[in-house]
Amino acid sequence: MITSSATTGRDGGERAGAAVEVQGSPDSSARGMVSVSAQIAPLRKAAIVLVSLEQSLASQLLAQLDRSSVEAVTWEIARLDRIDPVEQAAVLEEFLGLGLRRLCFVFEDLLKLPDQDIRGAYHDEDIATWALALAGAAPPVRAKVLGALDAAAAAALRRFLEGLGPFRLSDAEVAQAEIAERFRRLHDRGSISLPDPSGREEVLV
Question: Is 90 exceeded by the pLDDT of residue 3?
Answer without folding.
Answer: no
